[in-house]
Design brief:
The complex is a heterodimer of chains A (307) and B (360). Chain A is 67% helix and 2% strand. By secondary structure, chain A is mainly alpha-helical. In chain A, a hairpin with a 2-residue loop joins strand 1 and strand 2 (131-133). With 360 residues, chain B is of the alpha+beta class. The chains are: A mainly alpha (307), B alpha+beta (360).
């Protein structure tokens, strides 16, 4: 079969047309108020977004077959303002929005605020060039509508949290002496560039999933269960993998340092000694010896312990 | 000098997994978050709905972008059972698989029994489908059973299907953002204020509804019964005559011993082949009962039972099969355990598409 591309609209094969017609039927577009032409336009938009211009016919069919067509039709009909679609959407998802918000924020007032703000974006309270814009118009049906709602809410929650963190009270800064903190001194010793290069080489060679697991576990401090749920495997699988990765990392880094001219002992010391920790350790000891930070009346009243 | 390591939270010294701090710092340094995947891709990734190529691309980005990892983690909302399993198994893992699964099974069983207790008030051998359907569904599929004797015996042992109205029929046209003050929202507020939003059970209005059509197909509704979708059960051509639904856990039974189970509300199915004394069950299943997630009961329309049924007298028993726990995906060795028959009736009929049942 000749290769079909998504841009050659006039050359859409009969089988593709039949597939789209079948999806149109199953998606209940008519019930929600979407015409066949509107639905075709939606599918075309999704194909352009997720596939290259020269995508094969089979890839296109696979993409279409994998869509959550009914939810896609519902979302796009809502975005277009069809009332019946909104009734169905509200029946199915309104309560879920608050549940999801409650799970994400863990606090009732924040949950309500988050759910309400997302709801407003979904409903389309903002207008652009006189047209109401709804966030539901960006749903493409790759995953479930509920999953998409969870992701959208998670993104909004994280953005809000970041915005709040930037607004730090000047009083708080003064209390902690942050405004008057000295500049961080340069390290007494630079890290051997061979160490960084060896580590970077090993990390780059890891499969993305392994790097994801390492980053989630060691940087983000996520639990094994959390990571396992994300990847769809059992917790014990992640536990074994983390253990295996940690051991294998060390072995490969030592080998890399060896190739860069370090002896075994030098390589082991290079991995175990971190001058930044030495520096931090000294700083923390100095801070304790000095005792009270400046300009904090509250802390100045604390009993001195000989320092 | 001291050893600087990255230790995961809560790691004990016996099971300490560590990487050098400098390795952790390089892992952080290689982060170059560009072109963040949108909510569609991240959501599909969290649901494992992406193809291999796209999944690898998203994972590559996630391995470098803490923000997106955080989004994916927050949006991977655990199911009730997943939460229970996570709590039960904890950070380490039990060395005895049987003990581990036993703990999980106990917790899940207790939780399921408590959750369905209030809905199973009529389950003393008088099963009902506690399903409310609007008037337009009077022509909708029923759960009546065409027994071999030509009469109509209702599905005997169907557990109540969970459902509750969450404001269906309420004036939705007035549902404007920011003015969610109807009864549903108020009850939702009470739950959130009580801190139940993140800890309590998933409200029943979020559970799918199930039914069997008159031609034996399984149907599911995700909108409280307004619309129904036919569910393909593992490409089976069996005609189903009985089902039991318990949250996301569904069992359907039908012709020629066809018995299927799904633990994710019908997304994936497993064929269960009951075996009795080495013989695979091939008779029609006309009743399914699952009062909890593990223990099940079938009512079979085999010739012996039919003969018994025709000549049944009060006090006689009807053959039933009890299955041991954890029978999913495996051949189950069932044992015939005679159960005292209910006095009077052995057939069940419905006249209103499954809303109420009558004994005859």
């Amino acid at each position: 079969m000749p290769k079909q591309t998504i841009q050659s609209g006039a050359e859409v094969s009969a089988s593709l047309d039949a597939l789209v017609a079948e999806i149109y039927q199953k998606s209940r577009c008519r019930v929600f108020g979407l015409t066949r032409e509107q639905f075709d336009a939606v599918l075309g938009e999704i194909a352009r977004k997720h596939l290259p211009a020269d995508a094969a016919h089979d890839d296109l069919c696979e993409l279409y077959r994998g869509l959550h067509a009914e939810e896609l039709a519902l979302a796009r009909a809502c975005a277009a303002g069809h009332e019946h679609a909104w009734e169905v959407f509200l029946t199915r998802y309104r309560a879920k929005l608050y549940d999801i918000a409650g799970y994400i924020t863990k606090e009732s007032s924040a949950a309500r605020e988050l759910a309400d703000s997302i709801y407003a974006e979904l409903y389309g309270t903002t207008t652009r060039e006189g047209q109401r814009t709804s966030k539901l118009a960006s749903y493409t049906g790759r995953g479930s509508l509920e999953g998409w709602l969870r992701t959208v809410m998670a993104q909004e929650h994280i953005n809000r949290y970041r915005r709040q963190r930037r607004l730090v009270s000047l009083d708080e800064e003064t209390e902690e002496g942050i405004q008057f903190a000295t500049r961080e001194p340069e390290p007494a010793m630079a890290v051997d560039p061979r160490v960084e290069a060896a580590i970077d080489e090993v990390l780059a060679a890891l499969p993305p999933e392994d790097r994801f697991i390492l980053a989630s576990y060691f940087l983000d401090q996520r639990t094994l269960a959390d990571i396992a749920r994300t990847l769809g495997v059992h917790e014990s699988t992640i536990s074994r993998k983390v253990d295996k990765l940690a051991k294998s990392l060390r072995k490969q880094i030592l080998a890399g340092l060896g190739r860069r001219g370090m002896s075994r002992r030098q390589a082991q010391e290079a991995l175990e000694v971190d001058v930044r920790d030495l520096r931090v350790n000294i700083r923390s000891r100095l801070a304790q010896e000095n005792g009270v930070p400046a300009f904090s009346k509250k802390k100045a009243e604390a009993p001195a312990d000989g320092s | 000098m001291y050893l600087a390591t990255f230790l995961p939270c809560g790691a004990s010294s016996e099971t300490m997994v560590e990487i050098s701090k400098i390795v952790g710092q390089r892992l952080e340094a290689i982060a170059r978050p560009e072109d963040h995947p949108d909510a569609n891709l991240l959501g599909a990734f969290a649901e494992r709905a992406l193809g291999n190529r796209e999944r690898a691309q998203v994972l590559e980005h996630l391995s470098r972008c803490m923000s997106c990892r955080e989004v994916v983690s927050l949006s991977s909302m655990p199911s009730e059972r997943a939460q229970i399993v996570s709590v039960a198994s904890g950070r380490g893992w039990l060395s005895w698989p049987i003990l581990r699964w036993g703990v999980v099974a106990c917790v899940v069983t207790v939780g399921a029994v408590v959750a369905i207790h209030k809905k199973n008030e009529n389950l003393n051998g008088a099963p009902t489908i506690a399903e409310t359907r609007p008037a337009v569904e009077m022509q909708a599929p029923t759960q009546t059973v065409a027994s071999p004797n030509g009469g109509k015996d209702a599905a005997v042992s169907s557990s109540p299907v969970e459902m509750a109205d969450a404001g269906v029929g309420s004036p939705l046209a007035k549902a404007v953002p920011g003015r969610a003050k109807d009864a549903v929202a108020e009850s939702r507020d009470a739950q959130v204020d009580a801190g139940a939003a993140s800890k309590g059970p998933i409200p029943v209005n979020l559970t799918p509804r199930w039914t069997l059509s008159s031609d034996g197909t399984l149907q599911r509704s995700l909108d409280s019964g307004s619309t129904w979708q036919t569910i393909t059960v593992s490409n089976s051509k069996a005609s189903f005559r009985a089902l039991a639904a318990n949250g996301l856990d569904i069992w359907v039974g039908g012709s020629a011993g066809a018995l299927f189970h799904s633990s994710d509300a019908g997304e994936h199915w497993t064929r269960v082949r009951p075996v009795v004394n080495g013989q695979v069950l091939r008779a029609d299943i006309i009743g399914v009962e699952f009062p909890d997630l593990l223990h099940g009961k079938l009512t079979i329309a085999d010739p012996a039972a039919q003969a018994l049924n025709r000549s049944w007298q009060p006090g006689q028993s009807l053959p039933q099969y009890d299955f041991p726990a954890d029978s999913r995906g495996q051949d189950v060795v069932a044992q015939k355990i005679p159960v005292p028959a209910l006095p009077g009736k052995q057939t069940w009929t419905t006249a209103d598409a499954g809303q109420t049942w009558e004994k005859k």
